[in-house]
Amino acid sequence: MKISVIIPTYKPQSYIWECLDSLCNQTFPKDDFEVILVLNGCKEPYDGQIREYINNHPDVQWNYIQTDQGGVSNARNIALDVAKGEYVAFIDDDDYVSSSYLEELYAKSDEMTIAVSNSFAFNDGNPEELLTYEMTSAFNTYSPNGRMSSSKVRRFFSGPWMKLIRMSFIQGRRFDVRFKNGEDSLFMFLISDKYKYVDFTSSNAIYYRRYREGSAVKSKMNKKYVLKNSFKMIGEYTKIFLSHPFRYNIRRYVKAILGSLHFILAHAK
After folding, report:
1. Residue 146: Cβ within 10 Å count
2. What predicted TM-score, i.e. pTM, was given to this entire model?
């Protein structure tokens, strides 16, 4: 198995079918990738709907798991525990990808490199009107440079989406379920001692990010919670860095700390 695609989902609406359809339409050989779909914290009617979809698309290698325990980090960890792929791709259930997404990411990945795709963002219900999105701008800026040091493009590593990650980079390490915000960037920092480079697909390999009202991205956070969570994050970044100070990049560590402080200033007004 070359790629394991991991999709956590909770009380999914109709957007999940667009996500799954995009994987059914991949140009990458279907024998070479699996889709691990984890329904977490809920069951019916979603469980039955998902099983029906899977039964109607038998050409894809599905691994469907339902768990009563909620949390996106827990769902991703469950999927990582059973993943068979040499590489892993994380996709949120309300997002979707272009048909060449997996094929192009795989072509640019190797034992020291994380491949990154192009990305677009849009508001739910209006996919034709693309939003101004910093990741699109970053891709347009850096992709012409080709393969480059990952420490120079930290903005691509705030989360696990839009990329293909070698399982040997992850090993037994997992998402920290104690955090509800910032856990994605913390995970990417945790595994940053294993990869050195980033390379880019063509602009045709696209991760489409959907912004929904009421989603975690759109939700406002309590000031007290922001302060407490951010300082816990800083403590965890420091703990990881000091555990192996010669393996982790100090510039990336400092930028992670500054990013947490910036988050405090931006959300605690």
Report:
1. 11
2. 0.92
Give me 126's structure tokens.
Answer: 């209006």
- Considering only residues 266 and 23, tell me which one the structure prediction assigns the higher pLDDT: 23
Ordered strands of the 206-211 beta sheet: 96-97, 206-211, 118-123
End-to-end CA distance of the chain: 48
> Alpha carbon 257 to chain centroid distance?
21
**Residue pointed to by tokens 């792929």:** 85
CA 119, distance to chain mean position in Å, is: 12
Cα torsion angle, 34, 196, 200, 131, sign: positive
pLDDT tens digits, 187-201: 999 999 999 999 999
Give the DSSP H/E element, type plus range, for residue 73. Answer: helix 72-82
Nearest to 118 by CA among 142, 136, 145, 96: 136
The maximal CA–CA distance of the chain, rounded, in angstroms, is 51
SS3 248: coil
State the Rg of the chain over Cα: 18
3-class SS at 39?
A: strand
